[in-house]
Amino acid sequence: MGKKSKWDEERQRLLEQKYKEAVIIRRIVFVTASVLFILLAGILTGGYLYVRNALLPVDPDSKETIEVEIPYGSNVSTIATILEKNRIIKDGTIFKYYVKLNNESGFQAGTYDLIPSMTFKEIIASLKTGRVYQEPKLKITIREGLKLEEIAKEIAEQTTYSYEEVLAKLEDPNYIEKLIERFPQLFNIIRVF
Q1: For residues 137 and 123, what is the distance between their CA atoms, to the nearest angstrom?
Q2: Integer distance in angstroms from the first to the last C-alpha of the chain?
Q3: How far is residue 37's CA from residue 32's CA, in Å, rounded to a whole number?
Q4: What's the pLDDT band for 137 if we cut at 50, 70, 90?
Q5: Which of 94, 131, 141, 164 has the fewest CB atoms within 10 Å of its CB?
Q6: What is the CATH number of domain 66-129?
Q7: What SS3 state is found at 114?
Q8: Is 66 helix (H, G, I), strand (E, B) or coil?
Q9: Which residues pair with 113 in a beta bridge?
C-alpha cells in the first residue's frame, strides 16, 4: 500500500501543477484579451471623435470670409487640399470621404468667398452651384468669332479703359503668362483647339 500512496501523491502533485499552469494561462489570456479589447475600444472611440470633430465647422462663430480659388479641372482631392490649406475645413481626407460617401459631384471652378463657420453641406452646395459669395465686378459677353481687335473694342466700350490700353494688355506676353499660371487647365484646353 505504500507504493500506491506514493503513486497517488505523485499523481495528485502533477494534477495540482497542471491546474496551477492552467490558471496562469487563463490569467495571461484574460489580461491579453482585456488589453487588446481596451486598446481597440480606445482606437475606435478616438477615431469616432476625430471624424466627428473634423465634420464640424472650423470656427462656428466666424464671420471672416476667405477667398478660395478652385482651378478649372480640379478633382475632389485638389479641392479638399485647397479648402484645408485655407482653413475652411479641418481635414481634407475626411472631406474626400464625406463627398464620396454622399455621392457628391459636379463641383465648379471659380473664386469663392467661404466662411470657416460653414458646414460641409454648405461648402459642397456652394462649390456645386458655382455660387460665389462675391458678385462679379464686371460682366462682358464676347460674341464668338470676333478678332482680337474687335474684342478690344468691345471691352473698351464697356469699361473706362481705352481701346489702345485694352489691346496692349491683350497682346502683353507677361499678362498672358500670368493668366496661364492662374488658369493652367483652361489654357491647356484652349491650346488643343
Answers
A1: 23
A2: 109
A3: 8
A4: confident
A5: 141
A6: 3.30.1490.480
A7: strand
A8: strand
A9: 67
For the beta carbon of residue 104, count every other beta carbon within 10 angstroms. 16
Looking at 56-138, list the stretches that DSSP marks H as alpha helix, in order from N- to C-terminal side: 76-85, 92-101, 120-129
φ and ψ of 116, to 5 deg = -60, -15
The predicted-structure confidence for 169-181, as pLDDT tens digits, reads as follows 988 989 888 877 7
Residue 102 corresponds to which cell in the numbers above?
A: 454622399
Neighbours of 44 (CB within 10 A): 10
Place of cell 499523481: 11
The neighbour count for residue 14, using CB atoms within 10 Å, is 10
Q: Identify residue 174 by its one-letter amino acid code.
A: N
E-state strands within the chain: 66-70, 110-114
Give the Cα-Cα-Cα angle 108, 109, 111 (nearest 5 degrees).
120
Q: Which residues pair with residue 40 across a beta bridge?
A: none
**Contacting residues for 169 by C-beta, under 8 A, at least 6 apart:** 161, 175
* 106 residue type, one letter: G
Looking at residue 192, its pLDDT comes to: 43
